[in-house]
Amino acid sequence: MAEDLVLDTAIRDWVLIPLSVVMVLIGILRYFVSKLMRSSQVPDPKIVKEGQVIVRARNLRAAANFIPPKSFLSRRVYFSNEENGLLFVPKGQTQNAQAQMFSDPNMAMDMMKKNLSMIIPQTLTFAWVNFFFSGFVAAKIPFPLTQRFRSMLQNGIDLSTVDVSYVSSRSWYFLNLFGLRGLFSLILGEENATDDTQRMMQMSGFGFDPSKSLGAEKDGLDIVQHEWALPKFEHRAEAVLKKLIR
Amino acid sequence: MTGHSDSSSSEKKSNEEMNDVPVFSAENMQNNMKVIYYSRTFMSIIGGVIAGILGFTGFMGFVFYFLVMTITSIGLIAKAKFSVHLYVDSWNRIILDGFMGGLMSFVLFWTFAYDIVHIF
Q1: If you measure CA to CA, which chain A residue comes closest to B56?
Q2: Among the four A56, A162, A173, A231, which has the fewest Cβ within 10 Å?
Q3: Which residue in B37, B104, B111 is closest to A141 by CB distance?
Q4: Start-end of H helices in chain A
């Protein structure tokens, strides 16, 4: 049945717009709260040192072609030497850093706080939406969906013959949840705590930082083939200067 | 939206050297990718509102979304003065990056505008 329902203007005024406005405001609020609550953790000197070594090795790998072959090789040996090279970590020590990171109370507290600050506003808003705005048709989505989505999108509406395009406010909430991420990235700048996928990537890259990346850097450094680019620069400088003179 | 107009005018050159060995300034390239992302998000929001006001339904709306994304790509390429390899490291980045990311925002604003104009 594809009849067009005519919906009350009051629904638009009192459901759609307030819900969107509330979600935007809660997002902004969460961003500022997470900024304020970010506890300044004293970084562990050992981890910082390892991080700096990784950065050095990475720079060496990136700029390898600008230094003469002999100095590149000597630097590479310094890093990946079996006995006292900086990047070589014996197998026994690799487990330690990870276990230490997870048992460290500060770090665990931080992760818990970040998780909670994401989940609690979402849960509260969802409960609020369910309590106040259930049992009526809230919006019409402009594209047709199959019947299987009916239970998901129309949960408050008990008529089974209404077109699936007419959805309840719960689905408007979910639509807002996903769609406002783009808007937040525009208004709040890059670093906003509202994007779950970014958060999860941060989480997963956290625990393995020292042990695995050292090995990875060492492998990367071993792979690099040195090709000294400097002789070509003279030709390029000559070409540029010739153009200037003309 | 002042941040948007600023960043679009300062797309930095990330590949200065015309050697055989291409060198990329990582920081500039990251800035360029950010600019591309912002542009696509903004255009998908605007496109959503337009699609809703014009009353597109169903398949036409998604076709319109791809149209908007293509226009954004063309605009970005024109802004880079057609020498794309100076600004990003491969063609795919400027054309395909963030294509699907704006879809949810597009659908949200499309639904919103469509409902406000046509249903209520």
Answers
A1: A142
A2: A231
A3: B111
A4: 9-11, 17-37, 45-62, 69-80, 91-103, 105-132, 150-153, 169-187, 196-204, 209-223, 230-245
Q: What is the pLDDT of residues A146-187, one digit of tens each?
A: 777 767 777 766 676 667 777 788 888 888 888 888 888 888
B74 belongs to a structural domain: yes
Contact A221, A61 (CB under 8 A): yes
Q: Mean pLDDT in chain A? A: 71
Residue B65 domain-assigned?
A: yes
Confidence of residue B3 (pLDDT cuts 50, 70, 90): very low
Is residue A203 pLDDT above 50, yes or no? Answer: no
CA separation for the pair B50, A135 (Å, rounded): 30
Domain that holds residue B104: 26-119
8 Å CB contact of B102 and A236: no
B57–A contact, CB cutoff 8 A: yes
A179:B105 CB<8 A: yes
- Residue in A with minimal Cα distance to B53: A142
Q: What is the rounded distance in angstroms from the CA atom of residue B97 to the CA atom of residue B84?
A: 14
- Compare CB distances from B107 to A175, A181, A232 and report the shortest one's residue: A175
Instruction: Flag if A178 and B19 touch (Cβ within 8 Å).
Output: no
- Local confidence band at B13 (pLDDT 50, 70, 90 cut-offs): low
> What residues make up the domain containing A204?
9-245
Question: Is A18 in CB contact (< 8 Å) with chain B?
Answer: no
User: Would residue B62 count as lying in a domain?
Assistant: yes
Q: Do A186 and B41 touch (CB under 8 A)?
A: yes
Would the pLDDT of A59 be above 70?
yes
The pLDDT value given to residue A127 = 87
Instruction: Say yes or no: A140 contacts chain B, CB-CB below 8 A.
Output: yes
Give the residues across from A166 on adjacent strands: A140
Note whether residue A4 is domain-resident: no
Q: Residues 8 to 27 of B: which have CB under 8 A from any A CB?
A: 17-21
| Unique residue bearing structure tokens 């090279």 | A85
